[in-house]
Amino acid sequence: MQNSTKSRIDEVVLVGGSTRVPIIQKMLRDFFNGKELNCSINPDEAVAFGAAVQAAVLSGVKDHSIKDVLLS
Question: What are residue 61's DSSP bridge partners?
Answer without folding.
Answer: none
